[in-house]
Amino acid sequence: MRQFSSDIAFTSTVKAVQTMKGSRNNYSRMEMGGSWETTVTPALATFLADLDMFYLGTSNAEGQPYIQYRGGSPGFLKVVGEKTLGFADFGGNRQYITLGNLSDNPKAFMFLMDYVHSRRIKVWGTARVVENDPILIEQLRDASYPGKVERVILFQIEAWDINCPQHIHKRFAQHQIAPTIEQLQRRIKDLEVQLTAYKTTQQ
């Protein structure tokens, strides 16, 4: 039984290293102040609504870790319940490493990245694969994406934490920069027309 939600990551060994490195007192105060969140808060729900990618970590029965990139339309990782997130799973390269890992070991980790605003959220918990549930599939599918949903994956939250934004390089999705590019292209065309007209008057 964990005393604090952050104990899912701060094991006794980790705490010993924190003590040795001089950071234990700071994290001890964090623990006494309430530790990490364990449910979906309005702030997390808002973060997820704009999220178009994340990294899913699993490990096999031997403890070998595996990280998988997951992408979709903004908000494709959905809130299913107070402590549950879910997303539709489409056909890929058919290696099924994540599915196999979750069959052996349900412990999982989500690394949620917002490169535009230099934010990241770490989520610890367990995950399970749900097959042949048309109601859940309909709830989690993206109507704008034509691919066939093969199954869904549900993630049960045990703890989550917003990480320091330091050293996160800004990156922008295509749909975020497209309006700016279109505006610049229109401006270039306008200037080209003006330049052509000016050259004509000078002849």
Description:
The chain is an alpha+beta fold. It has three domains: 1-35, no CATH class; 36-171, Electron Transport, Fmn-binding Protein, Chain A (Pnp Oxidase, Chain A); 172-203. The chain contains six helices and seven strands. The protein has helices spanning 12-21, 24-32, 42-50, 97-104, 134-140, 174-202, and strands at residues 53-59, 65-71, 78-81, 84-90, 107-114, 119-130, 149-163. It has a seven-stranded antiparallel beta sheet. The N and C termini lie far apart (86 Å). The mean pLDDT is 91.
Strand order of the largest sheet: 2-1-5-6-7-4-3
Would you tell me the overall average pLDDT? 91
Alpha plus pi helix count? 6
Q: Enter the CATH topology name of the largest domain.
A: Pnp Oxidase, Chain A
Instruction: Please give the CATH architecture of the largest domain.
Output: Roll
Please give the CATH class of the largest domain: Mainly Beta
Radius of gyration, whole Å: 23 Å
- Class by SSE composition: alpha+beta
Major sheet size, sense and barrel closure: 7 strands, antiparallel
* Rough outline: extended
